[in-house]
Write a structure and sequence with these properties.
Elements lengths: L6 H5 L7 H7 L4 H34 L4
Amino acid sequence: MPDNRTNEQAQAPANEQHPLEACFGGGMSERRKERGASWRVFLYIAGSHLLLAFMALLFYLGSHAGK
């Protein structure tokens, strides 16, 4: 019976993932992904609060500059 696979497919092991599949999972566990997402959310929230605090300081200093 002839082998219908291309030469490249015939040489690749059966358990090897396709390159596009490997980049989505990255071999990371779900727990590690959740921890990374939690850190990103924390950093975004903390960063936005720091930015808002800086802008509030600018408005405060601007309103009291002429006095």
